[in-house]
Design brief:
By secondary structure, this protein is mostly helical. It has five helices and no strands. The relative contact order is 0.07.
Length: 128
């Protein structure tokens, strides 16, 4: 039910930010950033549940705990880049937002490379 509250706050902020943009454009940007930070704070409450699930996953992967680290890094990069790109778009800088997204995708690809290398080595050892 909390998601409905967050959606309502977001819609209310947009409805308040639209008239503010015509008065002073930076006020609309400030409103958007403030709402993003409130939503981020609400999302942080779910972090404990996610961490307990990751611990259970870690118990299953006892020796390969590095895979979970890579997964968490990729998820963190994704959220950080999406958050930054959204703020850039709200401020009217679509070009910068696109570059942030591209950088995030490349960094995730780089982060996941050890998994790909391990997979290819496993396939090579099975093939002989």
């Amino acid at each position: 039910m909390e998601i409905v509250k967050i959606i309502l706050v977001s819609v209310a902020a947009i409805l308040l930010a639209a008239p503010l943009k015509s008065y002073k454009s930076e006020y609309g940007v400030y409103m958007g950033i403030a709402v993003c930070l409130v939503i981020l704070g609400c999302a942080a409450r779910y972090l404990a549940g996610i961490l307990s699930a990751v611990e259970k996953l870690g118990e299953c992967l006892k020796d390969n705990y590095s895979y979970i680290t890579i997964l968490l890094k990729a998820a963190g990069i994704t959220y950080a880049c999406e958050f930054c790109a959204g703020i850039c778009r709200d401020a009217g800088y679509q070009g910068i937002a696109g570059q942030v997204e591209i950088l995030g995708k490349l960094y995730i690809l780089l982060t996941g490379m050890p998994i790909l290398v391990t997979l290819l080595e496993s396939i090579r050892s099975l093939a002989g």
